[in-house]
Fold this sequence. Notes:
The protein is of the alpha/beta class. The protein has helices at about 5-15, 45-55, 60-65, 80-90, 140-155, 175, 190-205, 210-225, 230-250, 300-310, 330-345, 355-395, 450-470, 545-560, 590-620, 635-645, 650-655, 655-660, 670-680; strands at about 25-30, 35-40, 70-75, 110, 120-125, 135, 260-265, 270-280, 280-290, 320-325, 350-355, 405-415, 420-430, 430, 440, 475, 535, 540-545, 565-570, 575.
Amino acid sequence: MSTVPPEIREHVDRQRKALPNEPGVYLYHGVGGEVLYVGKAKDLRKRVNSYFTKALDARKHAMVLRIADIEVFAVSSEREALQFEANLVKRHQPPFNVMLRDDKSYPYIAVTLGDDYPRVLFSRERKKRPGTRYFGPYTSAKRVRATLDLLNRIFPYRPCEGSHPGRQSGIPCLDYHIKRCAAPCVGYVSQDEYRVIIDDVMAVLGGTVKPVRERLTLQMRQAATDLEFEQAARLRNRIADLEQVMQLQETERPGEGSFDVLGVAVGDELANVQLLQVREGRLHDRRSMFLEQVAGLDAGQVLTQFVLAHYAPGRPVPAQLVVSSDVLSPEQVGMLEEELCRIRDANVEVREAQRGDKRRLAELAGRNAMHAMTYDSLRERTQLERRAMALEQLRDELDLESLPLRIECYDISNLQDESPVASMVVLEDGRPRKDHYRKFAMRHEGGQDDFAMMHEVITRRFARLAAAIEDGASRNAGAELVDLAAEEPAAVEPDGEAAILAPDAIEQGEASEAREVDVREVDPDGRTHDESFSSLPNLVIIDGGKGQLGAAVAALRELGVERVPVVSLAKQEELVFVPGRREPVVLERQSPALHLVQRIRDEAHRFALGYHRNRRSQDARTGRGSVLDTLEGVGDARRRAMLTFFGSPERVLSASLEELEAVPGLPGKVARRIHEQLHRLGGAGVGDGSTAPTTAAPPPEGDEAARGY
């Protein structure tokens, strides 16, 4: 049975003391932020404290031992609490809720913006994937599928599965011939042209239809003027399909009895906005979002900036927003109504609640915003204390000269000798600094040798530091020590939701993970000043054992880099190896220091593995790393032309002379020379003098098939 550390238990005790004596709903969260239990109460303080002061059965006792955070939402009556509890249980599916739990999930339309050529697809995913835009939830799966069918008639986005378009044959599929796909798999549409198609799809799903409809109408009229009547008829049908899509969308949008209620609370550096979604007269959902850098702003200014950020194009906008009567000025109300009308392409009213249920809901939202501010200060203080404790423990256990305010971790990822890469991830003040992450494509050519590759990545990284020091551009991250326990919070992500004063930071009501800004492949030759490489770390962590640690230490010694502590973390026993110590350092299993080290090690592994998979996928598409790379007279352009024509390196190896001569852009002389080389090689390595048969060997199975041999 897992239990939380004592410092988290103290945080929970502080939260219990701050609970209001009001009816409401409470959520118990685990260490990882997962929802363990959702309950309702007539008196939140009494109900929650009863779990910690009374004897419990085995199931509830096991739950209490895992509670790391408490979230509450005050309502006006037990009846409201009951309805809201049911909605939350359906959404979160907590493991300790039984009575109100079911398997209902709502359909979404997902747009995979992380792909080079995004897809538009039906989804019921409970956990939203990064790099994917979600529209919904919708109430009818049948309407969603009908909407997707109509959208594909209007916009020729690719319906094929997978992150990359097309099949290995390199021939357009039937969808292209029936005008359901623009055939990006064979290059009939560029990436920019395809993105315009996807932007139109998202505009329609977000309710911004007028520009798309007007453009299609102009194209139809122009086609008719040019006597291209078939094209004009197709455009006419697309406009009719677009109207049907809008009718289906309208059935899923809030009706007359649906509106959003906003409440705001503003502190010195932080503000909280509570958004209550009322659908058909019932409280459907509630979201709590924090805004930072609000010093000097009043509640009206904060609420105005939140509305402009949250209700961005592509986000459903209700016909009415309800706020407290003393928050917005008449000028702010008029400005918000004008902007929201533009986004929704219909009338939107911003109503200041004066009486009745809407006033009660506005007061309820404001009261919960104040509760969230109180809870957040407790949560942030606990996080700061835990980070400070982790850094202090690391300093003491590893005998460091100062607090490791900047920690860098390195990991190698490869499959045998295929596409080896390395990653560098950074923690500053115990938090990820993702704009300082870097990735390396390894230049080592001696086969699979983790030690040599670790030596290479450390050499390349700290050679950049040495150059920056010579240029006077270095920054010692440990020069300015701060007391983390007294540090003001810089960014808050409570309840799994992040909100900042930027429109693109609030994405579908989900957590906005810190962006990987300027994450690129590293080439130290001729690179301009890079803040990440010119920063001196207080601690370097190597993912591996003594061998990897020795390689890193040797690289630093060769560069003459001193006073940079280096350790390694072995995965099996979670042992920390330190140069000069015979025995490893064993950190306590529940210590904040070990959790911090494990977190940065896992992040380095995730980042390296993602880059490695991308490289392998790219190599498989372009033929890099295959026998095509070593053919005389074949560069990137001709290799791509052959792969586009044949679909895979294996098909190129088995191609006849006539097939090679038919490749667009491949001169006949070059085609004959390639055929001679392949005929001589028989699919083996170039230049080995082999006289094997011309038939290429079958491709290997599993992951090795991506090599293209």
